[in-house]
Each structure stands twice: as C-alpha cells, then as structure tokens.
Design goal:
Layout (H helix, E strand, L loop, with lengths): L1 H19 L21 H18 L10 E11 L7 H14 L2 E3 L6 H5 L25 E14 L2 E14 L4 E15 L6
Parallel strand pairs: 1-2, 1-3
Antiparallel strand pairs: 3-4, 4-5
C-alpha cells in the first residue's frame, strides 16, 4: 500500500511540474519586438552587418573593373568588449551576404585545415591523383576584411548607457591600401546595475 501511495505522489508531482512549465515559442525574426538585452545579441550582429554590407555595395567598393568577383579573405575581427562573444557570428553573416551579392568569393584556406592538408594526398598512391589538388592551384586573396568590436559604458541620470561600435575595413593586399572603412554604432540604455558580461 505504501508503494502505491509513493507512486501516486510521484505522478502527481510530475503532472504538477509539467503543468507549470512555460510554453516555448518561436520568435518571428522579421517582427521581433521582444525586449532587447543590454549585452550584444543576434539582432545587434544582424543590424551591424546589414548596415555595413549595404554601405560596401552602395559605394561600389567591391565592383571589380573587369566584372569578376574579388577573392576575399576574412582576417581578424577583434573583440574588445567586456563580453565573451563569438566574432565568427558577425563575420559569417557578412561572408554569406557578400557571397550572395556575387561581388566576392571567399577563400577559406586559413580556416579550413583540409585545404592545406590536402596537398599531402599528392604523396600517396592510395588516392586518384586526378582528384588531388595540383600545385599552385589555390586562389590567392586580393582583399582582406578585418575589424573590431568595442564597448563603452557611462552612467547618466541613474541609467547605464552602453555604446557598441562595430568597425570594419577592407584592404587591398597587393598594395596594402584600405579601399573601404565603415562602422555601425548600437546604443542601449539599461538599469545602472545591469551587467553586460
């Protein structure tokens, strides 16, 4: 009898807890009106990357005289904020949008270890050499995209003001000249005790 009572109590508790659980909902990214976080979030990366990509395209920076796409490499994007953020989130969204524009092709030899490691297959008799990458076949980058994300905080009238700055540059590797620079600021106001890390 005691076992039945224990079983009944366990089941009742499980149903009660399940009934109190909050329902998970999908967020409509196009019409997201949920409260913003004081820290950087996905919407901030998207807003910054969209603004800077549009500026690059509007200025014609990525329009090569012969109409061919530039070969671009994503260099270092430095995180100089108080947060542990994945700067690849920003660079990835920029990379995708630029490739979709048809203005650039992105070389990944720096990120994908297999690009360089595949040259070792030339030495193996186990692989069909017709499929192995030939010497001097990698496309050298013409442009480099680099940047920095910074954060500054102030307390004004009992509120915390947080300013994030996304800065990007495109450099022509053949001569070291910067051919485009852009920045996007995202400003937020939060409670003075809000932590952003």
């Amino acid at each position: 009898m005691k076992n039945y009572v224990k079983l009944f109590c366990c089941l009742a508790l499980a149903f009660t807890l399940n009934g109190c659980a909050t329902e998970t909902q999908l967020i409509d990214e196009e019409n997201d009106s949920t409260e913003r976080a004081a820290a950087l979030e996905g919407r901030d990366f998207e807003e910054a990357s969209n603004a800077m990509i549009q500026d690059m395209l509007d200025m014609g920076t990525l329009s090569k005289p012969n109409g061919q796409p530039y070969i671009l490499i994503i260099s270092r994007i430095e995180n100089d904020t108080m947060q542990r953020i994945d700067v690849d989130e920003l660079s990835k969204s920029i990379r995708i949008a630029l490739m979709k524009s048809g203005k650039v092709r992105v070389t990944a030899f720096q990120e994908d270890n297999m690009v360089m490691a595949s040259s070792q297959l030339r030495k193996s008799g186990e692989f069909n050499q017709a499929n192995v990458r030939k010497k001097a076949s990698l496309a050298a980058p013409e442009l480099s995209l680099s940047g920095k994300i910074t954060q500054r905080e102030f307390t004004v009238s009992g509120k915390k003001r947080i300013e994030y700055r996304f800065s990007l540059s495109i450099t022509e590797l053949s001569n070291g000249l910067t051919i485009w620079e852009g920045e996007k600021k995202i400003k937020k106001i939060a409670d003075k005790n809000t932590m952003t890390w």
